[in-house]
Amino acid sequence: MEIIIQSLVSGIVVGSIYALVALGFVLIYKSTAVINFAQGELLLFGAFLCLTLVTVLKIPFWLAFFATLIAAALLGLLLERLFLRPMIGEPIISIIMLTIGLASVLKGIIHIIWGSETKVYPEVFPSEPVTIGKILVSQVYIYSVAFAVICLILFNLFFKFSTAGIAMRAVANDQQAAQSMGISIKRIFGVAWAIAAVVASIGGILIGNINGVNSSLSAFGLKVFPAVILGGLDSIPGAILGGLIIGVLEALSGIYLDPLFEGGTKEVVPFIVLVIVLMIKPYGLFGTEEIEKV
C-alpha cells in the first residue's frame, strides 16, 4: 500500500508539471488554432539555460530562474515574430509542420551548445525527505507541486482579470470581432508564444531538478500532448485535469503493468490514452465541439 501511495505522490508531482506545460499548448491553440510541437524543445532550453546560469556563472538559483523566464519569453516572441507571423493566413497544416521543423532546429542547436550528457542541478531544495503519515516525500516533490500550483493559479487569474488576458480570451473566441474592437491580433499571438515558452521553461527547470537534464528531456513536451487532448485542446481547466490524470496513470502503470511487460509501459500508456480519447471523445473532456453546418 505504501508503494502505491508513494507512486501516486510521484504521479501527482509529474502530473502537475504536465499540467503547467500543457497550458502552453492550450494558449497557442486557443489564440492561433495552431498546435505547437516545439513545446518540448522550449522546455529543454529553459532547463539547460537555468542550469548553466547556476553551475557555470554561479548565479543564485532563484535569480537564475527568473532570468531564464525572461530569456524564454524573449525566445517565444522571437520565434513568433520571425517564423510564425509570416505564416498568418497560410493553411494550418503548413504552420503545424513549421513548428515540427522548429522543434528539430531548436533541438539541434541545444545539442550543439550543451551536448548530450546528463547534467545535474546542484542541491537547490533540502535533501532531507518529509514524513507524511508513513510516507517519505522528497522536498523537491513538495516544492515542485507547490510551485506548479501557484503558477497555474497566477496564470488563471491573469486570463480572467488582466487586460492582456481578457484580450487573449477575446481573440480565442472570435479573431475578427476582437480586431474590430481594436485588439492587436499580432500582439496577442506574440504574448501567447512568450507565455508558452515561459511555462515550458518552468516545467523544464522543475523536472531538471528531479531527474537531471539531457536532450531526451524534450520528449517530456510530447508526452504532455495526451494530457492536452484528454482535457481538451482549448480548455485551460482541461489541461490541468488532463495533466494530473496522465501523471497518475503513468505512476500506476509503473506498478501494475511494468512487471507484466518487463518495463516500458509508462512511456506507452499516455499515447494509448490519446488514441482511446480520440476514438471516443475527440474534443476531450472539456474541449469545445465544433459542428459544421452544410
Write the layout of secondary structure elements.
Layout: H1 2-32, H2 39-55, H3 61-84, H4 92-114, E1 130-132, E2 135-137, H5 139-161, H6 163-173, H7 175-180, H8 185-211, H9 219-231, H10 236-256, H11 258-261, H12 265-280
Keywords:
single chain; 12 helices; 294 residues; globular; 2 strands; mainly alpha; two-stranded antiparallel sheet; 2% strand
Round the Cα radius of gyration to an integer and report it: 19 Å
The dominant shape is: globular
- Report the portion of residues in β strands: under 5%
Provide the structure class: mainly alpha
Uncertain ranges: none
Major sheet description: 2 strands, antiparallel
The spatial strand order of the largest sheet comes to: 1-2
Please tell me the overall pLDDT: 86
Distance between the termini: 55 Å
